Write a sequence for this structure.
């Protein structure tokens, strides 16, 4: 399968712990996006990269959130000191320039 | 804040019937996209319509765009059980701003 992959698919953590998610985009795609989705809502944009450069960050991305794409391939999203409000589905997508975005299956985070 | 607002929020129809859902947006767009999301396959891109287009077809899907009214509609003809999903519209300007979606349920 050459689509976008995300790991882990599910993560349960206790409040205050740090978590890290990984996204592997489609190999030839230069852009990578992170979104967050809560129940009953559409996905909300968090941040995106073009190659290794982080070009935009949403106001939703507090100081506890950090994303990297060190070699312009896979990306990681880290949440420090997790809070219950961080519980959501975290979606990654990739695209070639401004063309269609392909989404991964998501990582479901539950903070207890 | 979300750009698109889908209407209705939920829709149930009999298999074989047509389903129509609408999307309104707030600011000017370069293009508008429709996505489908179900539990099995995640978010899947359905169709993109550019701001200078009025109508676009893809298989059983028909999308219209009225930039004067800042609205779009998605028509699914001859619905099937597999069409049961949530449908989102979103504008595209590097990032996608999604609405809350229409939950479509196809009844057997």
């Amino acid at each position: 399968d050459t689509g976008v992959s995300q790991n882990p698919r599910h993560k349960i953590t206790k409040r205050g712990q740090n978590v890290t998610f990984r996204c592997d985009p489609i190999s030839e795609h230069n852009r990578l996006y992170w979104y967050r989705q809560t129940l009953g809502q559409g996905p909300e944009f968090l941040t995106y990269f073009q190659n290794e450069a982080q070009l935009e960050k949403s106001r939703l991305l507090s100081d506890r959130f950090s994303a990297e794409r060190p070699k312009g391939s896979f990306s990681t999203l880290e949440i420090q000191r997790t809070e219950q409000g961080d519980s959501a589905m975290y979606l990654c997508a990739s695209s070639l320039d401004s063309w269609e975005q392909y989404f991964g299956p998501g990582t479901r985070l539950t903070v207890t | 804040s979300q750009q698109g607002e889908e209407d209705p929020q939920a829709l149930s129809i009999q298999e074989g019937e047509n389903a129509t859902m609408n999307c309104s947006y707030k600011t000017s767009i370069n293009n508008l996209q429709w996505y489908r999301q179900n539990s099995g396959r995640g978010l899947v891109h359905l169709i993109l319509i550019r701001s200078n287009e009025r109508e676009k077809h893809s298989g059983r899907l028909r999308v219209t765009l009225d930039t004067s009214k800042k609205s779009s509609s998605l028509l699914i003809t001859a619905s099937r059980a597999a069409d049961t999903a949530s449908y989102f519209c979103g504008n595209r300007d590097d990032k996608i701003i999604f609405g809350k979606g229409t939950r479509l349920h196809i009844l057997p």
